[in-house]
Amino acid sequence: MTDKTRVAVVGGGWAGLAAAVEASLRGHHVTLFEMAGQLGGRSRELDVNGVMLDNGQHILIGAYTQTLRLMRIVGVDIAEAFVRTPLRITDVDGLGLRLNPGAPVPAFAAAVCRHPTWKLPEKVALLRATGAWALRGFDCEPALTVANLTARLPLALRDGLIDPLCVAALNTPATDASAAVFLRVLKDALFSGPGSSDLLLPRVSLSECFPTPAARWLAQEGAVIRLRERVEQLHPREGAWLVNGSAFDHVVLATTPTEAASLAGPVCARWARLAAALRYEPIVTVYLHSAGARLPEPMLALRSDAQSPAQFVFDRGQLGGPPGLLAFVVSGAQPWLDLGIEATKLAVVQQASRALKHLLREPAHVLRTITEKRATFRCTPGLPRPAMQIAAGLNAAGDHVQGPYPATLEGAVLCGVCAAREIARRGTRAGSPD
To answer: pLDDT by residue (tens digit) across 314-325?
Structure first.
């Protein structure tokens, strides 16, 4: 091991695990530090009445190339772990946008033309808008919000497609969300190749999708994983980095932005200020149970308004969980949290009884409500995000780090991979700002 580059990865979420796997693939000796008792970061398992479930619902899409690549490397059978379907954004009546398999551009155009409730002028408006975005390379003024970008589209399109897509992808309301990031997501999801827009819904826990197999793979490769060990000290000394007193040639800081700002502050104050300045959007997941309930699809879109908090509902019975268990997801949930979690739970129960009344054989009751107050950063126009490079030999990784994507699993994994690939770059001695 003495001839190998000694790499410390601080943080065992998806970004940290991606960095650790990529660094191991490149022949480095990796030590991963995680202060919690389990890997996975914000994507973790919880005990819900004896059933282990994820702390929230996550969707992968076919365009998540780096995430799917690393999953295969660590031994995940994608076909077994996920329900994969062409993109569907449909309601309880089966109405909505349904893409057929094949090349994404004609599939999207055909799906728009087939949409059962949009009128012809609305379909033409959407196709013209997406065509114009494509001609501009899916680029726009950095200051634009999604609401600004789509202001001329008919209300039915904004309510039925744009706003749900925006809050699902960016976890930021369209009135505040970055149009530039939204367009990049559309470009990669809808127009980057066959299968790019496919939905991949996990039917195993997210831990089994990547963190647990990655840990097994890393152990087999000789990496060291230190759970329940918080990194308290990080500073340069004699061309190396000291992490809790141990020397490493390179460090990947894959913690939360707050933790990263604390550790990196003495090295690069400007980087730490950017990380600490990020603001966040919450996500609330309400698990309801109704015996015998089964949705027509594993995931359905819901109409969200002042009385109805959730934008999507997942049938956990079709995704590896017990029958009758439904997960209602409230993204961009701050207005509802301002009303109180009890009011939010009650509103979701009432929404379920209205939207799914023909599918619920008995009234739904709340099993568990999970609130992630800092689920993702607020993806606003022109947001200054901290760079990957902090100093020579010190990189940052995470979905909050400067990059093309919002706070998604692919964003985290991609940044982790890039941080690991940067290790081979020759730079100045450890500790000097890059």
So the answer is: 999 999 889 999
Structure tokens given for 145: 């919000």
Give strand pairing partners of 368.
287
In sequence order, the 6+-apart residues with CB closer than 8 A to the CB of 342 are none
Predicted confidence at residue 103, as pLDDT, reads 85
Question: Does domain 6-45+206-278+385-424 sit in CATH 3.30.565.10?
Answer: no
Q: Report pLDDT for 430.
A: 55
Answer whether 35's CB lies under 8 Å from 41's CB.
Answer: no
SS3 at position 209:
helix
Residue 6: phi, psi to the nearest 5?
A: -90, 115
Q: How far is the C-alpha of 82 from the C-alpha of 384, rounded, in Å?
A: 35
Neighbours of 330 (CB within 10 A): 28
Question: Is 294 buried (19+), middle (13-18) or exposed (0-12) by CB count in 10 A?
Answer: middle
Decide: helix, strand or coil at residue 233. coil
- Per CATH, the architecture of 280-377 is what? Alpha-Beta Complex (3.90)
Q: Where in the chain is the domain with CATH 3.90.660.10?
A: 280-377
| Predicted confidence (pLDDT) per residue in 366-425, tens digit | 999 999 999 999 999 999 999 999 999 999 999 999 999 999 999 999 999 999 999 977
Residue 140 burial (CB count, 10 A): 18
- Cα-flanking dihedrals φ and ψ of residue 421, to 5°? -65, -25
Q: What is the pLDDT of residue 385?
A: 97
DSSP result, 69-100: HHHHHTT--HHHHEEEES-EEE-TTS-EEEPP
Q: Residues 217-266: pLDDT tens digits?
A: 999 999 999 999 999 989 998 889 999 999 999 999 999 999 999 999 99
Let me know: does 208 contact 38? Beta carbons within 8 Å.
Answer: no
Closest CA to 242 of 426, 18, 394, 35: 394
Burial class (CB in 10 A: 0-12, 13-18, 19+), 278: buried
